[in-house]
TrEMBL record, chains A, B, C, D:
All copies of domain Glutamine amidotransferase type-2, residue ranges: 12-230
Catalyzed reactions per annotation: 5-phospho-beta-D-ribosylamine + L-glutamate + diphosphate = 5-phospho-alpha-D-ribose 1-diphosphate + L-glutamine + H2O
Protein name: Amidophosphoribosyltransferase
Organism, as annotated: Oceanobacillus profundus
Plastid as UniProt keyword: no
Cofactor binding, per record: Binds 1 [4Fe-4S] cluster per subunit.
Gene from which the chain derives: purF
Gene Ontology terms, MF aspect: 4 iron, 4 sulfur cluster binding; amidophosphoribosyltransferase activity; magnesium ion binding
Pathway field: Purine metabolism; IMP biosynthesis via de novo pathway; N(1)-(5-phospho-D-ribosyl)glycinamide from 5-phospho-alpha-D-ribose 1-diphosphate: step 1/2
Enzyme class: transferase
Keyword Iron-sulfur attributed: yes
The enzyme's E.C. designation: 2.4.2.14
Length: 469, 469, 469, 469
């Protein structure tokens, strides 16, 4: 299973709301706040109690909805999705929520995660005569739910969920109810909030703040939540087990203002910086962070170390999709892209450069070179997480093992490759301490990409100790 | 003159390059780095030695040039412009550089600043039969240069410049040379750099870093610079006087990595924070800055005060032009726009909130309210510049006097209006100390909008003491 | 069955080619020549022997393919489709060819016609757990072919075709072969041509002329044609019966340069005019035709009657989709839309106005009024086909019975409603004589919309006399 | 002067209306009906009595105005323009009406024609210090009107008109009046109509029919018409002379339903066919016309000759701007473009093919070949106008002399080049007889491109005999 990385990996965001007059608009704002989770496509499906209506498109949430007529997306209930795709499937058909219509009713699906046995399930379905329209894993679940022609309800959904293996947060919308489900290891984040009488479900709590909703509770591993005009009901489709929430959500993926499983992301990042300063101090003139994701850790490092925090690297806010990348020739002549060093700050200085993680190493190499060309005397690289040496099978696209610089090089080699004066990573224990604050609330994290210990296997085996339902 | 603000004010950025094979592309990158100076339109005019070719459009630099064919913008010499307009003139005709063709040769003009006697000059020209095509002040200079049918050369340009009164940085491109001119008080910034053998001129030095060029010298007040394949020549069209570089360029307008008149913008802002902490300390738990322009000052304040710097307000990076503004109803229900508070950070805390300046006060009021709703116990507002009480006539659009909150209210009243627990501004002296580091190099600043002391009057009178040429 | 018209009716065009290096481009030109058959959407699916690639979109063929990269549509085999939809389904999902991918191979379907028992078949499929993605009848056939998971081959296709009832011409593309099938009554047109060694299949022969191919043979009622690199094979999936080719294809729908079932459309229309002149002569000054479809009949009428043919009505060639329709107020003031009378021609004249058919009567009324306002002394309307009094169930969208003027009014009443001086229709016998030239080649036509005699019923009953296979 | 053709030639259409609530919308419809006169750009300028507002764009009238907000084009008075450009100037700046704003008032200009001394006038203006913004001749007139700073009124316009030499129809709009002017030889068409109390001016009367207006009178050669709320006044700025209306307007350019100088275009074309049948009869089976402009002449030829008129060539209505032109390879394999032969009609037949004119001969050659490949036995080409051997200096773009096939080849050579069985042209006398019906109303035509006799020379000399004013 570990031999190679699966073709299509996704990191996405889901949002759902039940029982609000402005359901579609609020879903738009909710998705907007989670734009960082997926920039390839976005969609909203609304239910007015009688039928489902969809608006989807390729591109950013703003682009997709700038011409949307929200009055045509009428209905008090909605689910939405932002999508990230790494290859191939950048086509409108794959944009979620997927909407399935039958003569007896419709169903919309939104999914964040990765189904490890999707290929096998798809083959079984096709052997039985099913025709799948997309290359998306998500469609497999819809066919599993409808297998045998049965209705879409708690039973058929639970049966279907027990056939899929992987990491997932699902939202399912029908005319008269909405379902939310989280995988048995709780690898992906999913929270429930309230806005007045309306229920809200989202991948990140920043979506609640965005619309003025308040956090209610986490969806726990193995739970199937049913929300309708009759209220909320929570069932369990898998035995209760220890949570393994993706550590990379804290390190890099989530927004600093989100709380994941009761832990604020900015605070955890700042603490990673603090731990890093304790573990790997440097005699230097200043601390700088690679914008934007490493700023929190850099501030933490600065505070703990007593060194001044400076804005030594600037991120150009206007570098977007239409930015014309400089040719190799111009890059070599010194034309900058997204990041530029601030010569007035770094010239002649010994610098601690904080980055949240290193994947291929190419960006780190470019930044170190840039800082040196701008006159930095020394550049000490400090990484606010352990080194990434293993692929992810749970929905994060992170390059193949071959491309992971830390899978093939020692820290000393990496230091030389990127041209730094020294390098150090945060320890596994340091990362865990920065995230897990309260042992009483099941705050375990998945660090498989750093440790190689995978909590869920494709054959359904797991290292999670389940208690009985 | 002070009774009302002129209709069309502009804050723009200019860029020119002479003698590089990739002139148009480098101008694109140069303009891109100055995108913050003008987002309404952009343009490039190229000279291949024989004729001028233009590409212009409304919108961001990326949008304007994403379909440009740079091979059709061939030529080793170019000028470019990014434009900001406050009213009316958001039309393609006004996008610069303006290009004027005659049977004997062409001329392109790019302009940053404001001509105070433009209306009067336009009237005189029209009485003589001239037809002006745009509502832009810049066209007036072109007609002045051609008045009497004379050629475009140092003499005709100097004569024309001596007729206009105001703040300006001009770039003029002809087939065989480029001119750069700065107003006699040097209110606007303009620097000269080199990239190999090529000469570069730009409003901000961040454009030099962007393309790998190095700073050479400032264009000094009253200078007319001529660049051609024969090299560079510097003349003076007005007597030498004390410089009055716009203080708002340091406080808010320029990019932190630019050096204006030998002073780094980030460093000056951080120093404003330091001075502010000395002048107006607070007993609080943390310092936060309003993103992005106040971050440097907040870090300075934190360092000087010993309080931790925290990321208490988050700026949504995806709020762009196509963002659908929430309705009043949704805003009142709590839907956020560009900025959101980080509840996990600010809850229960006493906060020093650093902002670079206050104009109308509405943003400050919204942020203070947002922080309080997110649980902040106290919010102490500290402004890293003196209060703005007077209009600007030199090219910065800053609202009418009626709208300036500080023109009509005492600090105490402002504190109450915006709902803060306390408020304090940096003093004039503090601001000057944060900017002017080296008295030997003519680093005077214009603080007219804060002090009401205008260095240049519409009738040509001035408070600048000129020395003889 | 006749009580009301089925919701979604379609008139479309299909095109297929097997074995040509420029398969996709030739399909583009073939579709382009059949643009009149469907203007809502267009698509091409190409097979390179290993996999199928699609390019589809809403709008005209030109619009859909103007940005297509034909080099990405590589492959020597292709099917294409132009689509017309009357309601609801104007969505990209319904644009054909529909493409179905499974792990064992892909299949593309293009369809012209209407399946009368689609609703019932869809219900059966869904009860068995199938999920259909579109509201298109065409998808039903795909699921029937895959029912039970069997492979897509002659047997599974024949079995599926025997379950559908209606009028249809299907093209099915797989990696290694292409199928063409025509309904047992041959209601829709479908012809086979050759271009060098390549085989071509199209709804109309004008597509052959467009690409330089030559006509080979008709696909006969009930035939299933298989084309592969091994050549062409023709099977029969239904017993041989009398052909009932849609008469409206000759009267109005097809292009004048097409030959349908060995009869040229322009020639048949001119002959309709000749027959009409014999049956319903008028004492008048000139003959005019309503552009474009009635010009041939008008010329025939003129020749037979000896009256001059004149261009009394002009069609504005630039009235397209973006034409801004005049408001009711402006129309009443005399602002014209697509057609305008030529005052200089019709003023003071007695006119025979030839139209191919009358559906609602509103257009005829407007044209007669227009001619009279332009000074025509008399307007005698002559219709080159029998009156339409019955709905079509075979794929032609023709309004409900309630809207058909001839279903509810006598010719005298119609004459009064449209304000003509006299009216006459071509007889059924006259229409048949104009089309059926050669009794030896099974040239029977369906005139159900004129006579109410339907050759195929929804329950599968038929009035066609089949001979044994 | 005859040595080479002037660079920028134009054939355009102008429209003006004074005193109607829906001025902008009616101008849209008027321009739409004259779309054939110019397809590169379109524009409307409206006056509400106080100021002028413009909406202009590149492309077809529909494209330019599909997003226009007519409520923002408020005002009871408007002028519009459709533009055709042959080279270079396909830029938004050149799209008319040109709008000139000064502090004392604005002026809009729309122009159809060509100014022969534009280059010289432009040079004089620039020597005096004027800056012209466009490469359009039209701007020259604006500067001439304002020369010396005088006001825009009858006197300044007359003075300016007397400096320009060429063929022109001008519309000038000010806040409080509209002017219309026609060149002293009346080479271009211009008519006045009425719509209720409103006055309408247009290049072709089809614009009057389009909006329901009625023809009032021609603008006569050398007239300056002033229209305001006080009514209409007609002055003369040049002596009265014989009219020389462009014959090509009848032969090819104008719409068949227009009346030019009291002669219907379709009727004149049909008569050209009649004259041609008399002059050059053929023993053949049928007459066909090249769509669309030769249909009228073909019908005339058929009627006079007694041969049947057939639809032997079909024009694809969907070949527009976005049509993908077939590659040379595909064209050689037989892929058709805009025109296709109707094999069912022409196969085995002797054909008279009527065309309105021959310029380069390449189209004729392609059509003859196409007909022969479709099986035509003989193709006899008959041209419904004399051969074009001379360039046009009056605003019609017609290729350089080098490219004119008739300038360099005898009819026999042309016949061989295009592969016809015979060829014949209409005589000059035949053309004149087909157009000039009523010798009492000054119906003289310019046939300079056929005869080489130019009615107006660049130096102002003329062959027109003027009577005294």
């Amino acid at each position: 299973m570990l031999a190679e990385i699966k073709g299509i990996n996704e990191e996405c965001g889901v949002f759902g709301i039940w029982g609000h007059d402005k359901a579609a608009e609020l879903t738009y704002y909710g998705l907007h706040s989670m734009q960082h989770r997926g920039q390839e496509g976005a969609g909203i499906v609304v239910s007015d109690g009688k039928e489902l209506t969809a608006h989807k498109g390729l591109g950013l949430v703003n682009d997709v909805f700038k011409k949307a007529k929200f009055e045509e997306l009428a209905g008090r209930n909605a689910v939405g999705h932002v999508r990230y795709t790494t290859q191939g499937g950048k086509v409108i058909e794959n944009v979620q929520p997927l909407l399935f219509r039958t003569q007896t009713g419709s169903m919309a699906l939104a999914h964040n995660g990765n189904i490890m046995n999707a290929h096998q399930l798809r083959g079984e379905l096709e052997d039985e005569g099913s025709i799948l329209q997309t290359s998306s894993d998500t469609e497999v679940l819809a066919h599993l739910i409808r297998r045998g022609g049965q209705r879409t309800n708690e039973t058929s959904i639970s049966t279907a969920l027990n056939q899929v293996v992987g990491a997932y947060a699902y939202l399912i919308l029908k005319e008269d109810r909405m379902y939310a489900a989280l995988d048995p290891a709780g690898i992906r984040p999913l929270s429930i909030g309230k806005l007045g009488d309306a229920y809200v479900v989202a991948s990140e709590t920043c979506a609640f703040d965005q619309i003025g909703a308040t956090f209610e509770r986490e969806v726990l591993p193995g739970e199937l939540v049913t929300i309708s005009d009759d209220g909320i009901e929570i069932r369990r489709f898998a035995p209760r087990g220890g949570r393994k929430l993706c550590a990379m959500e804290y390190v890099y993926l989530s927004r600093p203002d989100s709380d994941l499983n009761h832990v604020n992301v900015h605070a955890s990042r700042k603490q990673m910086g603090v731990e890093l300063a304790k573990e790997a101090p440097v005699d230097a003139d200043m601390v700088i962070g690679v914008p934007d994701s490493s700023i929190s850790a850099a501030i933490g490092y600065a505070e703990e170390s007593g060194l001044p925090y400076e804005m030594g690297i600037l991120k150009n806010r206007y570098v977007g999709r239409t930015f014309i990348q400089p040719s190799q020739e111009l890059r070599e002549q010194g034309v900058k892209m997204k990041l530029s060093p601030v010569r007035g700050i770094v010239e002649g200085k010994r610098i601690v450069m904080i980055d949240d993680s290193i994947v291929r190493g190419t960006t780190s190499k470019r930044i170190v070179k840039m800082l040196k060309q701008a006159g930095a005397k020394e550049v000490h690289v400090r990484i606010a997480s352990p080194s990434i040496q293993h692929p992810c099978y749970y929905g994060i696209d992170m390059s193949t093992r071959k491309e992971l610089i830390a899978a093939n090089n020692s820290p000393e080699e990496i230091c030389e490759i990127i041209g730094a004066d020294s390098i150090a990573y945060l320890s596994e224990r340091g990362l865990e301490q920065a995230i897990v604050k309260d042992k009483t609330i099941n705050q375990g994290v998945c660090m498989a990409c750093m440790t190689g210990r995978y909590p869920v296997m494709e054959n359904g085996e797991t290292e999670i100790n389940y208690t009985k339902c």
